[in-house]
Each structure stands twice: as structure tokens, then as C-alpha cells.
């Protein structure tokens, strides 16, 4: 009788295919965005002078922690993944990885993440990374995803923990600026994810997952997307005032990025059933977060602060 492991060996032709299957379990595209927010927080916390070893270890640990959470998510959702068209080829529903091996892999990643952060950073960052796994698995995947249309609003907090990990790794504590970063990610997550949910609304409806577009429709969802994008404007500027950890360069970048995001959300609100408009909003939300974090890094560099200070001095003299 052919068992799950036989299916794995049959479908994975060589070691490279096996490796690709396990990497796919971790959802690397999602991890990349989480690492960018982690790096942005570290850059601010270190005032543009991050220890490269600490940066590497923290990002590697974040990769392991996020990979563990995503693997458990795949393990838990393998029943609906087998039904949804876009996910049925994932390693678990396709039989390329067995549930037992996926669980062992997830545990190993979590242990590696916690150990690395404890040894090379501090216990606070390690505990925060572990809490991110627990929130994503227990609160979002198990409790909310299949039971509440607010699943991504509350459960999305798991995706906002990486900046806290990065900040704690550098400073050993959590300041108001760290929590402002947390708030920015929390507010960004609904418009990002709901734009995607509009695109794959039928898949979610087919498996009974109460994503917002399924429960209240595209029109109501697009309005909420617009409101959340508006809320990002004051949230992102908190880092400039009153927290004073970011300067004029970041402020300018944030205002431009927010303006484009609001325009994308407005367009979606005007044409909530247009999948091309929803796709445009979703893709931009990814670039938005990447560029916002890049702006944090650029603004925090000593050379940027020096240049801005010199320009400000010259302007003052002219007046």
C-alpha cells in the first residue's frame, strides 16, 4: 500500500525538488516583505549604523520564524488548499511533503529561530519572534481565519511583530517608535490583503472562508480599504512627529507613497468589481511597504542627516 512518504518520493524526483518543496512550504515571497520591515526597524533603532552580524542573524532568525508559522499554516489549511485552485499544487495537498515531515520541519525552524536570537541578540527579541508564530498559528489560522470576517484585521498583528523583533534585537527594549512601526503594519495589512481577497473571492467562497469580500461584498470592502489607507497617513508620520526618529526625507517619501496608495484605493472604491483595479492596488501595496522601509533606511543614514542639516543651515542663512 502506498503511503504518504511513497507519494513524496514519487513526486520529488531528486534532492533539489525536495528542497524546493520545503522552501515552498515557508512561502518565501511573504517572508521577504516581513524581512524588509524587520530591517527597516533595525536601521531606525541603530540610527543608520546596524551591526552587520546582528542584521544577518536577525534576518535569518526572522526567516526561520516566519517559515515555521507559514509551514504550520499550510499544514492546518491543507484541506481547503486542496480545493482552492491557486493552492492545490502546494507541497501538502499535492502529496510532495507529508504532514508529519512538515510539522517536524516547522518545529525545527522555530527552535532554530529562538536559539539564534537568544544567543546572538537577546531574549526579548527571541520571545517576540516566538509570539509571532503563536499569534499567526493560534489567533489567525486556527481561531479567526475560518470564523470571522475580521480575521485579517486582528490576526494581521502577527505580521506586525517582525519590526518589534528587529527593534528589540538592536536596543533590547521596545520604545514608542517600535510600537508606531507595529501600528503602521497593522493598518497596512487589511488594504493589502483585502485587495488580494477581492481577486480570489470565489476561491474563498468555495471553501467557506469568511474573508471580507465574501461576507460583505466588494463595494463595502473597497470602502474599508480606502479608510485604512487614509489612516496610514497620520500613522506613518508619527515617526516624524511627535516621535522624532525620522526626518524630512522620510516624511517626503511617506507623503508621496501615501498619496499614491490613497489614489489606488479611491480608484478601487469607484470600481470595486474591476479585478484589474484590485490587482493594481494589491501590487502597489507591496511596493508601498518596500519603499516606505527603504525610506526609513535612507533617512536614518548619518550622511543623509548631515546633508539635510547642511541644507537647512544654508536656508536659514539666506533668510
Automatic annotation (TrEMBL):
Q: Could you list the residue ranges forming a coiled coil in this record? A: none
At the top of the EC hierarchy, this enzyme's class is transferase
Entry's localization field: Cell membrane
Question: What is the protein's major site of localization?
Answer: membrane
- Molecular function, one GO term: protoheme IX farnesyltransferase activity
Answer yes or no on keyword Coiled coil. no
Catalytic activity line of the entry: heme b + (2E,6E)-farnesyl diphosphate + H2O = Fe(II)-heme o + diphosphate
Among InterPro entries, the record links this protein to: Protohaem_IX_farnesylTrfase, UbiA_prenyltransferase, UbiA_prenylTrfase_CS, UbiA_sf
EC assignment: 2.5.1.141
Q: Name one Pfam family in it.
A: UbiA
Q: Any keyword Transmembrane helix?
A: yes
Membrane-related topology note: Multi-pass membrane protein
Q: Name one GO biological process term.
A: heme O biosynthetic process
Cite any additional comment in the entry: Carbon 2 of the heme B porphyrin ring is defined according to the Fischer nomenclature.
What PANTHER family does this protein's entry cite?
4-HYDROXYBENZOATE SOLANESYLTRANSFERASE, PROTOHEME IX FARNESYLTRANSFERASE, MITOCHONDRIAL
- UniProt name for this protein: Protoheme IX farnesyltransferase
* Protein source organism: Myxacorys almedinensis A
Amino acid at each position: 500500500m502506498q503511503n504518504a512518504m511513497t507519494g513524496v518520493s514519487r513526486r520529488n524526483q531528486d534532492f533539489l525538488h525536495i528542497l524546493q518543496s520545503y522552501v515552498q512550504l515557508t512561502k518565501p515571497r511573504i517572508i521577504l516583505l516581513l524581512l524588509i520591515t524587520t530591517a527597516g526597524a533595525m536601521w531606525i533603532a541603530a540610527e543608520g549604523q546596524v551591526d552587520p552580524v546582528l542584521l544577518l542573524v536577525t534576518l535569518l532568525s526572522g526567516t526561520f520564524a516566519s517559515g515555521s508559522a507559514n509551514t504550520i499554516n499550510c499544514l492546518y489549511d491543507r484541506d481547503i488548499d486542496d480545493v482552492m485552485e491557486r493552492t492545490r499544487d502546494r507541497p501538502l495537498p499535492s502529496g510532495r511533503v507529508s504532514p508529519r515531515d512538515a510539522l517536524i520541519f516547522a518545529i525545527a525552524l522555530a527552535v532554530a529561530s529562538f536559539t539564534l536570537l537568544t544567543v546572538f541578540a537577546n531574549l526579548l527579541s527571541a520571545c517576540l519572534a516566538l509570539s509571532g508564530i503563536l499569534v499567526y498559528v493560534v489567533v489567525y489560522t486556527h481561531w479567526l481565519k475560518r470564523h470571522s470576517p475580521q480575521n485579517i484585521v486582528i490576526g494581521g498583528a502577527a505580521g506586525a511583530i517582525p519590526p518589534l523583533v528587529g527593534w528589540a534585537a538592536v536596543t533590547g527594549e521596545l520604545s514608542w517608535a517600535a510600537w508606531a512601526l507595529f501600528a503602521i503594519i497593522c493598518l497596512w495589512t487589511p488594504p493589502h490583503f483585502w485587495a488580494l481577497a477581492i481577486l480570489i473571492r470565489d476561491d474563498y467562497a468555495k471553501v467557506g472562508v469568511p474573508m471580507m469580500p465574501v461576507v460583505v461584498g466588494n463595494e463595502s470592502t473597497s470602502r474599508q480599504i480606502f479608510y485604512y489607507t487614509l489612516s496610514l497617513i497620520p500613522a506613518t508620520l508619527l515617526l516624524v512627529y511627535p516621535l522624532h526618529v525620522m526626518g524630512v526625507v522620510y516624511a517626503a517619501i511617506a507623503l508621496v507613497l501615501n498619496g499614491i496608495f490613497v489614489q489606488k484605493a479611491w480608484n478601487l472604491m469607484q470600481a470595486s468589481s474591476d479585478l484589474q483595479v484590485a490587482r493594481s492596488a494589491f501590487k502597489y501595496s507591496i511596493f508601498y511597504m518596500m519603499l516606505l522601509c527603504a525610506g526609513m533606511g535612507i533617512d536614518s543614514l548619518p550622511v543623509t542627516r548631515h546633508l539635510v542639516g547642511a541644507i537647512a543651515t544654508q536656508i536659514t542663512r539666506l533668510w
